[in-house]
Amino acid sequence: MNIVYAAEKPSIAGILSEHLQLRVQAQEIEVCDNPDETGSFLIQWNLYRFVLSPAGQVESELCLA
């Protein structure tokens, strides 16, 4: 289990790359704190939004807006 206490964009891009099995560069993503869960991050990449949990799990949803 990967525990994420504090993260930087290159680390988050690496975790997202593993999840997607694609190379994601840090400059391609936007990251902000998730107000719904302490220690969680919201990630925007292309038309997709992802949630990175404090445990290092990535979940995705299609961003229609």
Description:
By secondary structure, this protein is of the alpha+beta class. The chain contains one helix and four strands. A hairpin with a 7-residue loop joins β1 and β2.
| Strand runs, count | 4
Q: How would you describe the shape?
A: globular
Main sheet record: 4 strands, antiparallel
Distance from first to last alpha carbon: 33 Å
N-to-C SSE string, H for helix and E for strand: HEEEE
- Strand order across the biggest sheet? 1-2-3-4
Radius of gyration: 11 Å
Average pLDDT: 84
What share of residues is helical? 10-25%
Q: How large a portion of the residues is in β-strands, by DSSP E?
A: 25-35%
Which stretches are low in confidence, meaning pLDDT under 50 for 5 or more residues running? Answer: 1-5
Q: What count of helical segments does DSSP give?
A: 1
Query: What class do helices, strands and sheet pairing give?
Result: alpha+beta
